[in-house]
Specification:
- With about 375 residues, this protein is of the alpha/beta class.
- The protein has a single domain, classed as L-arginine/glycine Amidinotransferase, Chain A (5-stranded Propeller).
- Helices cover about 20% and strands about 20% of the residues.
- It contains seven helices and 19 strands.
- The longest helix has 20 residues.
Length: about 375
């Protein structure tokens, strides 16, 4: 029987990966966790529906191309199941008028060594998203005797899990960035309460024995505590940055290879011990290049900082979005072979190259890249 699942970090040689799909992606119906508002593009707050088909087709074309590029570099590419994301869903606690989609597997699946962990997800629209990956996980389980298939406790996501509903987001939108940072980020208080553990897998940065977890608008302190208990052989560190609406670490702070990390030039780290931990272990943190675009594309809730949302093939080779010339040049100057990939049509479906993938197998074992530790962090 084959060993299929193994990935301890973000940079070792990639051998197998899941690439998502744009099919059926929805502009989500309003819920306590999120309210989409795209009035200039036909979806003002309170409305929802499928993404325009021409955008779906363009995104799928770029994702198919990326999958082909990965395969040409010796990577096995798996794809999730196509499902109807327009269906209303319900639990005993709530009903939700639509779901979301399956473009960003990185949000849902966290691979740590021989384990793939299904994240909780804090949006009701994404509660059943794991089902699209179940056929793949079942196949891995049958074929790999060492594969550990885990699922975090499914949250109830009652109103008690949120400080408020849509009114929270109306208040948030009324503030400028500095006001929002002062009110929410500096107080570690976004819309999630600590009623139950909540986290997205994309808020976890994997550095071998050390895991850095972003305390964000989709990952609460209870979620970080649960991850700390779930991975007792790892050191789990809290990461926070000066950002008004923090979501997902991979457009904020990413490792490139042992001893080198890329940090968002706008989002300053708030955890002094985190910066010190990198310094005492001789890691260099470099600010990313300026993004190519001033504004995200239509119907996109992600930021222009998808420019740094890259995928490493190995310690010397990196995939970067085709338009991001400055980011490509910076990485080239840092010693990488840069492979440009057209991918901006995918942004409105949930992210960039890293978001659109979930590691299944990278070569290597768990290593300790931070032998010097800071007590209490």
């Amino acid at each position: 029987m084959a060993k299929i699942v193994n990935s301890w970090n973000e940079w070792s040689r990639l051998r197998r990966v899941i690439v998502g799909r744009a099919d059926g992606t929805m502009i989500q119906a309003p819920e306590p966790a999120v309210v989409r508002d795209f009035p200039e593009d036909g979806f003002p707050a309170g409305t929802y529906g499928p993404m325009p088909q021409d955008m779906v087709d363009a995104a799928n074309e770029q994702m198919e191309n990326f999958a082909a590029i990965l395969e040409s570099h010796g990577v096995v590419v798996d794809r999730p199941e196509v499902r109807d994301w327009s269906e209303e869903i319900a639990t005993p606690d709530w009903k939700q008028a639509s779901q979301f989609g399956v473009m960003p597997p990185r949000d849902v699946l966290l691979t740590v060594g021989p384990e793939i962990l299904e994240a909780t997800m804090s949006q009701r629209a994404r509660w059943f998203e794991y089902l699209a990956y179940r056929p793949l996980l079942q196949a891995y389980f049958r074929e790999d005797p060492d594969f550990r298939w885990e699922s975090a406790p499914k949250p109830r996501l009652t109103d008690a899990s949120y400080h408020a509903g849509p009114e929270f987001w109306h208040e948030f939108e009324s503030l400028d960035e500095e006001e929002a940072i002062a009110r929410f980020t500096m107080n570690r208080r976004w819309n999630l309460t600590e009623e139950e553990p909540l986290f997205d897998a994309a808020d976890v940065g994997r550095f071998g024995k050390d895991l850095f977890v972003y305390h964000s608008s989709v990952t609460n302190a209870a979620g970080i505590s649960w991850l700390t208990r779930h991975f007792p052989d790892h050191r789990v560190h809290v990461a926070r940055f000066r950002e008004s609406h923090p979501i997902h670490l991979d457009a904020t702070f990413v490792p490139l290879r042992p001893g080198l990390a890329l940090s968002n030039r706008k989002r300053v780290p708030l955890e002094e011990d985190m910066v010190k931990l990198f310094e005492i272990n001789d890691w260099e943190i470099v600010p990313c290049a300026e993004p190519a675009l001033d504004e995200p594309p239509p119907l996109c809730y992600c930021s222009v900082w998808l420019s740094m949302n890259t995928l490493l093939l190995d310690e010397k080779t990196i995939f970067v979005e085709e338009q991001e010339k400055a980011q490509q040049q910076q990485l080239y100057d840092l010693g990488f072979e840069v492979i440009p990939v057209p991918f901006w049509a995918v942004g409105p479906f949930g992210g960039g190259l890293h978001c659109a993938t979930a590691d299944v197998y990278r070569e290597g074992d768990m290593e300790d890249y931070f032998p010097k530790q800071i007590p209490g962090y």
